[in-house]
Amino acid sequence: MEFHGLRALLRPNLTSSHLIPSLPSGFLPSSCISSPHVKVLKNSVQSGLCCGSPRVFSTRIGLVPGSSKNSRVRVSASMGTSTQVREGVELKVYETVKQLGEDLAPYVADISKSSIDARGVFSIVLSGGSLISTMGKLVEEPFLGKIDWSQWHVFWADERVVPLEHPDSNYKLALDGLLSKVPIPPANVHALNDKLKPREAAEDYESVLKQLADKKVLPLDAGGNYPRFDLILLGMGPDGHLASLFPNHPLVSKTDTWVASIEDSPKPPPERITLTLPVINAAENVAFVATGSGKADKLKLVFGGDLPFGEVPAKLVSPVNGKLVWFADKDAVSKL
Ligand SMILES: O=C1O[C@H](COP(=O)(O)O)[C@@H](O)[C@H](O)[C@H]1O
């Protein structure tokens, strides 16, 4: 499918207000965030005057996630800053992975609280890979005691089709690092049916989501087409993939299902299931966690100029009616 046609399909509500306005200073300053590690800068990002940091990363970009083709904006990131790249898209940069984890925990806890206050439940989608190790603070006080874990519903952005106790299982990774340490009702942890082949497993996972949509645990988006998760947490692979949506793979442009299967994943194991891109873009909140120099080349492309569709799948994440936050460490932004 041709790029603009697909983008319109993925972003049916796209209006000019979703596009980057011309920004004289190259970024949209916003009010300060009460975080020990992150400050939103006031027009001083590029000089590196804030936070006493001499190190400034910046890149001239043409098309940030979801922007219009003609938008031009400079993304700058220095240590300890939060830059509003455009309306609804924020980039937070940390000196260390530990500091990133200390900010990720209150971010998740705040969305959990506001979702439970508003709807009585919190739907959170996890990924595998390096993400889980950055979530460790959540199982410590004050978060452990403050979060209403009984209302959490946990899902996966992607899962490897292996037994749930297999070391490659994203479920096992989350169970060992997070879920076994918090009192989430087991019935609210929505894992892959590991007795099924990839295609059947994807269909089964989609039917679980649809049952939860019928029970109003998962609301649908404005068009009634896709589930609207409260929070989707994603990692980005060194090749720019997210979930199990790999560069230039046909699954990147799949829009007719909520969950899809893949049997030729370029990253082992080859058999997986994954949420499709429009489901990710229907979420209320999406956060990427990208750490390490291995992510730097692709992060530069995510915030850089136009690319052929699907070359860097992470670039296509742009919630239609939600917020996107990138949590990155200094190594990941080293090429911005
Ligand atoms: O295979 C996968 O990789 C991505 C990225 O992992 P990372 O270790 O580079 O952060 C992950 O988000 C996905 O869930 C997983 O299945």
Can you give me a brief rundown of this structure?
By secondary structure, this protein is of the alpha/beta class. 21% of the residues lie in helices and 19% in strands. Belongs to the glucosamine/galactosamine-6-phosphate isomerase family. 6-phosphogluconolactonase subfamily.
Overview features:
single chain, 336 residues, alpha/beta, Rossmann fold, eight-stranded mixed β-sheet, 7 helices, 21% helix, disordered N terminus, binds the ligand O=C1O[C@H](COP(=O)(O)O)[C@@H](O)[C@H](O)[C@H]1O, 6-phosphogluconolactonase
How much strand? 15-25%
The number of distinct helices, counting runs of at least 4 residues, comes to 7
How do the strands line up in the largest sheet? 1-4-5-13-12-9-6-7
Give the total of beta strands.
13
Number of domains: 1
Q: What global shape is seen?
A: globular
- Helix content range: 10-25%
Largest sheet: 8 strands, mixed
Q: State the secondary-structure class.
A: alpha/beta
Under the CATH scheme, which architecture would be assigned? 3-Layer(aba) Sandwich
Instruction: Please name the CATH topology.
Output: Rossmann fold
CATH class: Alpha Beta
> Which compounds are bound in this model?
the ligand O=C1O[C@H](COP(=O)(O)O)[C@@H](O)[C@H](O)[C@H]1O
Radius of gyration computed on alpha carbons: 19 Å
Please trace the helix and strand order, writing H or E for each element. Answer: HEEEEEHEHEEHHEEEHEHE
Low-confidence parts lasting 5 or more residues at pLDDT below 50? 1-36, 39-55, 60-73
- Nearest-integer average pLDDT: 82
* Straight-line N-to-C gap: 30 Å
